[in-house]
Amino acid sequence: MNDNNQWATPTPLRPDGTNLLPFPVNALPPIIGDMADAIATTTSTDVAMAGTAILSAASYCFSGVYRMSAKRDHTEPLVLDALTVAEPSFKKSPVISMVKRPYIQFAHDWNESNKQDIFKSQAECKLLQGKLEALEKKKDVTADEIAKLQTEISNIPSSNFRRIVVDDITPESLVHQLEENGTLLMISDEAGMLGNFSGRYSNNVPNLDLLLKSWNGEPYISDRATRGSIVLKKPYMSICLACQPYVFDSMINNSAFRGSGLIARFLYCFPVSNIGTRKYDTQAVPEKVTEDYKTLVYKLLGTKFTYHDEKELYLHFDSKAYGEFVDYYNNFIEPHLVTDMAFCKDWGGKYHGELLRLCGIIHCIKCALNDANPVECRVTLDTFCNAIEIGEYFREQAIYAYSLGDIDLGTVKAERVLNKIRSKGIRDIRQNDLYKLCRCTLFKNAADFGETMEMLEEYNYLRREKVKGANGNNKSGVMVFINPNI
């Protein structure tokens, strides 16, 4: 019974993601594609992890500056929220660290070079505030005098030490940081801080509004009894996080995250595992690749930090690319919402918007590499094709992600039995004895356990045979033979 050749390959109890598209690193623009490849090589990881993080981080460079326009009443900001889901030991930390390093260094360098101007502006504002307080104490002061000084104070540009990256942050602190910086990049190898927004510190009352609004730059007003109102006109935050599967399970099954649409805003990455075959003596990221990546990020951030207009600049397709986008939407995206995206319609409904965002990001990076103005150049068919390749990877990943959130109780019970069989190294056992080993609150009784055994037999994990009772008694039992291929 335990001859491997007599057994069929077991059918996975849940989707395992092994047949999904590989990440199309060649669709990335030069330099960032090279960096993704180099990070994957030195860490012996799937290039999807580095590619996803680089794209999401790069989107910060354009948030609040550009919007991608498909038609007059439909535009998208260039913000990408991404979530990489991987087991421990997938080297999430070194990958994220290499991606975000130039962003942290740029903020430090910018603050150092602008230190004197920042202090001067803060001092001017403080002096005028002092004059206002003194003026208000005068008996013969007029309303016009006070209003004039208040206007003068309000006209002083806000000048603070800039922040790009945030990590573990509360909703209240996020409001303050977005008020000072306008846009942010939340990037971390842990997604635990999302618990801060699900109600961890607010009696389990979710506080997701700012996360939702910062994906699309919608106005946000924070009213607190202990302080005045804070109005964020166009808050933007690109989110690039990595987490372990148990964190993702809690997110996909969180009614607040799911119902609010937060889950539908993420691009998902489930990297392929190389664990067990990795080598230590891999090639380090070449210095030229690191330097080129840093130079590109600095160039993009330099443009962003010197853009002070509240109005965003619009990017447009050329005629061929626009025609292909319309055709793709009408003949592919919309029909697929009732087929393979039927169980993730909330994500699928945003897919065409994600494609527009990818088009804009790829277009702006290409323009930066060619010293061209993104507004003056049209988004070409080649760029749209790049976005389609990358978008299709994320579409398959999203379908897989949502399938993990639809696991029924029967699958959970079956996995409980398989885990016990594997941990004990069982090759054959009486069903009643296996029931005793697996007994827990999942199984109501022996009959309920028997239904799980039927499922495992149907999926080719085991076979069952009726046998005579032990010690020669007439009471029959069921012998379970385990598929060696598991």
Can you describe this structure?
- This protein has 486 residues and is of the alpha/beta class.
- 49% of the residues lie in helices and 13% in strands.
- The strands form four sheets. It has a five-stranded parallel sheet with strand order 4-5-8-3-9. It has a three-stranded mixed sheet with strand order 2-1-10, covered by helices on one side. Strands 11-13-12 form a three-stranded antiparallel sheet.
- It is elongated.
**How far is the N terminus from the C terminus?**
14 Å
Count the beta strands. Answer: 13
Helix content: 40-55%
Q: What gross morphology would you assign? A: elongated
Sketch the major β-sheet.
5 strands, parallel
Overall structural class, as computed from helix and strand content, comes to alpha/beta
Number of helices: 18
Query: From the alpha-carbon coordinates, what is the Rg to the nearest angstrom?
Result: 28 Å
Give a brief description.
The chain has 486 residues and is of the alpha/beta class.
Q: What are the main properties of this structure?
A:
alpha/beta, single chain, 486 residues, elongated, 5-stranded parallel beta sheet, 3-stranded mixed beta sheet
